[in-house]
Design a protein that fits this description.
The protein has about 80 residues and is mainly alpha-helical. The chain is about 60% helix and about 0% strand. The protein has three helices and no strands. The termini are far apart.
Length: about 80
């Protein structure tokens, strides 16, 4: 296994632990989020090996659908 592959699997395990614990990927402006964004770019371009693609897509499917960021809708009372 190359150093690059070792790093990929280390980052994958870190992300997997986060998804299991919180149900979400890393917050914006974090090293982990930069890695996720790069993996999505590789996936879209077809540059990700099949084994990595399957693992990454499985993690994306494990995420919670609950929205935790962005603007809140104004309540009708306001």
């Amino acid at each position: 296994m190359t150093k690059s592959e070792e790093n990929w699997y280390a980052n994958y395990e870190e992300l997997k632990a986060r998804v299991i614990e919180t149900g979400h990927f890393f917050p914006k402006h974090s090293r982990g989020n930069n890695w996720v964004r790069y993996q999505r770019k590789r996936l879209k371009a077809g540059l990700m090996p099949e084994d990595q693609r399957l693992l990454f897509e499985a993690l994306e499917n494990m995420r919670s659908n609950e929205h935790t960021g962005g603007r809140r809708k104004k309540s009708e009372d306001s």
